[in-house]
Amino acid sequence: MELLEGALAEEKRPPDVPEGLQEPKEASAAGVAEPMPQSPCAERRREPRFLCEGHAEIEVPHIGLKLQGEIHDLSRSGCFIEAPTVNLERGTHVEVYFETRKICIRVAGNILVLRPRTGVGIAFLPMSPRIAWQIEMLVEELKALNGAPCPEKHEVNPTPEAAAE
Fold first, then answer.
1. Which of the 8 DSSP states describes residue 155?
2. I want to staple 59 with a disulfide (CB 3.0 to 4.6 A). Which of 85, 95, 125, 154 is the partner?
3. Any idea where the PilZ domain is (predicted)?
């Protein structure tokens, strides 16, 4: 039974793994199928992100930890929070509160990207239609203000320690 479950688990791609890392597969010299690397220029985000600024708070509900930061960019499916002191594992369930353009939003998410001494990328979890609509309207406003979305590999304001490395 365990072997069957393992085989089924291998066929399913985790939701946070880009398709290019799972398919197509090419055979190695040993005849074992390996994922083909994704182009470094390929966009991995589900939605374009737009620059914004404002206060943000990341809360880890099950331990009561609250961390302060600044929102850097926002999309319909996630955001990046500049918070140099955040040291949470990828996949950690969090609640994010942010305020930008005089709009306050609280939404659940998971840590998707951790950039030490810089911040975290958060993928939003399914939300109520009202919150989804608020985020949609905010993203449309940011799009009108900023024009083009921010690049996938954006530079945020590094801490003095990170800049020295």
1. P
2. 95
3. 43-137
pTM of the full structure: 0.66
In angstroms, the CA 116 to CA 1 distance is 40
Question: Checking phi first, is residue 102 left (phi over 0); if not, alpha (psi -120 to 50) or beta?
Answer: left
Return d(Cα 148, Cα 143) in angstroms, integer.
7
Hunting for tokens 């609640």 — which residue is that?
95
User: Dmax over Cα atoms in the chain, in whole Å?
Assistant: 58
**Stretch 102-107: mean pLDDT, rounded?**
96
- Min mean pLDDT across 37-46, 53-62, 113-122 is at 37-46
Please state the CATH superfamily assignment of the domain spanning residues 50-145 in this structure.
predicted glycosyltransferase like domains (2.40.10.220)
CB atoms < 10 A from the CB of 51, how many? Answer: 16
